[in-house]
Amino acid sequence: MTDSSHSLSNSISGSDALNLSKLFDVKGWVAVVTGGGTGLGLVTATALAANGAKVYITGRRIEPLEKAAKESAPKEGGGSLIPIQADASTKEGIQKMREIIEGREKWINVLINNHGVSLGHADPNAVEQTPEALSKELFENETFDNWLDAYRINTASYYFTAFAFLPLLSAAKTVGNYPEPGNILNLGSVSGITKTSQKGQFSYNANKAATISLSHQLATEFARRNLNIRVNVICPGYFPSGMNAMEEQYLGDSNHDYARKRWGIPFGRAGNAVDYAQCIFSLIANQYITGAELVIDGGWLLVQGKSTV
């Protein structure tokens, strides 16, 4: 839907607003990336810092955070990585994180909820495909604690971080004089969209679906209240990280057929840091996107069911 009474081309005539350096400008931003010491969180934090943002990376263990801050700090551009030890899976940990950051900053421009966990699960493919064998495997070898722990970390904690940082996000516009308040980006997964259990990871897939739903609800409620705090969710497919067990020959571009047959990815490779960073910037910088779920999976969802995972 467009407004024919106003020319989009005229509104940008004579400006440099469409230069790439302006389209995705995060220089001077204050960012918080939970789980920012490893995996996709570190990719996110490094990309932001490389483009001039001050990035607080948080996690339960200080060692990987300090290592990341030392080894991945940008050599130029003015950005930085600042480690903060705080457990985002508890309300007390989130409160500690907020208190540390609000003691140093007057606002934040983006909160990226990246922390998460993938716990062990029963495997329905490992037993005889009878009602009795499936019942035994999936009932006796699963626990309520596993389900609830995963939901607490992957979904419920995102709710608490969103509301804990709401005043600092709002202050980006009211105090920092930015064009918009800060925004939130949550880490979902194609596992929260697929209709398969991916060899029995019912809990993980269910709580990632809940994370996507939570993101939509937050975006809706913030919009209804004219807070203008955008909330989006990114849904990656297979990327190298500590949460999945991709074989070494799958990680690069050397064996496309293997990736297609074993992992069911039409593009024949895992996602990489550049792929992921491009999606991150498109969601956090675009001031007209909220309530969106962006899938980045090399086409896996389009052909799901053909792979062995």
Automatic annotation (TrEMBL):
Keywords: NADP, Oxidoreductase. GO terms for molecular function: oxidoreductase activity. Transmembrane segments: none annotated. It comes from the Eukaryota. It holds the Pfam family adh_short. Belongs to the short-chain dehydrogenases/reductases (SDR) family. This is Short-chain dehydrogenase.
